[in-house]
Amino acid sequence: MTQTYDFLVIGSGLAGLLFALDVAEHGSVAIITKKTGSEGSTNLAQGGISAVLSSDDNMDLHIADTLLAGDGLCAEDVVKMVVERGPESVAQLVSLGVPFQLTKERQNFDLGREGGHTRNRIAHVLDRTGQAIEKTLLNQISQKKKISFFENHIAIDLITSATHLRRGTVITTAQETCCGAYVLDQNREEIKVFRAKVTALATGGSGKVYLYTSNPDVSTGDGIAMAYRAGATVANLEFVQFHPTCLYHPKAKNFLISEAVRGEGGVLRTRAGEAFMEKYDPVQRDLACRDIVARAIDTELKRSGDDCVYLDITMRPSGFIRERFPTIYEKCLQFGLDMTKEPIPVVPAAHYMCGGVACDMMGRTDIRGLYAIGETACTGFHGANRLASNSLLEAVVFAKNAAKQALIAVQDPELESSPDIPSWDDTGTSVSHELVMITQNWNEIRRIMWGYVGIVRSDRRLTRAERRIEMIQKEIQEYYWNFKVTSDLIELRNLATVAQLIIQSAQYRKESRGLHYNIGYPNRNDAKWRKNTLLRRSMV
Fold first, then answer.
1. What is the spatial distance between Cα 224 and Cα 355, in angstroms, rounded to a whole number?
2. Which domain holds residue 341?
3. pTM, two decimal places
């Protein structure tokens, strides 16, 4: 079954939805998302969006904070462009209906502060900003007649003009033009061809490649894996940001304790009650950048043998805590924790992929007709470490840029003459009754990555991880060729690909910078390594 559109958007977070809204006035749009529309990282974002919105702040300060966090690897022209677009980006979201928190006088934004920021510049909707944005954008999407929304549809592989099929395996033999994607309709258990002149990858992050993550279950690196297999360049995948403070509780699943808690005065303490961040960053202390805080917690836990550290905000009035952090307060209460009276047990967890599919300022990848936006993309904005709440800002700016460029690209007459696309070919495959292969390898990948490719790395650990992932890759390939694809198999295949790419990137960089820390090379080396790590699949 083939469905044809002008624009195909893979993913339903902030970047994908904004892109779809912008192009919908000029052509037909299909949005595919592998679960429900709201199930993604945008919906879980607690903190907010950073922008210069007050008189005591300025563009130069925001740029400087971003560059400092990026540890020498940001593209300065990109940082300048994105930061300068901050105020208008917030205004665009307000115009769409996002109810950002205002001061009591209701004349200005109630701005918060998070780690790495030298000013209060986080526009938020209490501690559920992402949820408010997602709800607003989905409402806008539902009113657009030219947008078709497909839930429970998971992309398998991108289709290019150089693609052919062999027993359900997409084989790309040259760098050409993206023509759409093969997509599994999970409701009908049917594989469809979604054909499009322009395809936008907005599939979010890769946190599920690690055992402990703040990410939702859908964050399996699908966009990065598909783009790499199609021949696109991926960049800087060694820079995986670990959020310092995930709730530590046996029954809590990937629940984030927002950095805004520290922004409002929260202090990290050991089990004995000692505040320890001054030892690692005497100036910023608990508001140091995430890479510093995560490594500090990791060091303290290894030193003490404890399972967690504690985030203490009990010095603030209980009424303020309940009003400012209603979601976090209620969640903690579910587990018998009253954050107004006792510190919250926390541990670091994989949170954000600073690398991704390499793209230019307009979101274009090196495959014509293929764009990457949001966390899926590597734009040069974040460098080696993302500054808190800069991700929503980047998503807005690059969604707008990509949409503007896509409206030009879609008029290219050569895109009209893309070749006939073969239907999905799964000849000779059967339904698998051995799902243990999927669950076993899924768990093994995540444990390998957590143990060997986590917050602190070494050449020896990376080599061990490489060997184990290569073995798993062989098993997955054999399984993939012999059985009909399922959503679990698609995600497993993507996880293994992204894991392998993270390991290769980490092995390549012989220094410590930002989120990549190797005990064998503990210092930053600008002379040799102030450059991006670029990987591209060799074309047959």
1. 9
2. 246-346
3. 0.92
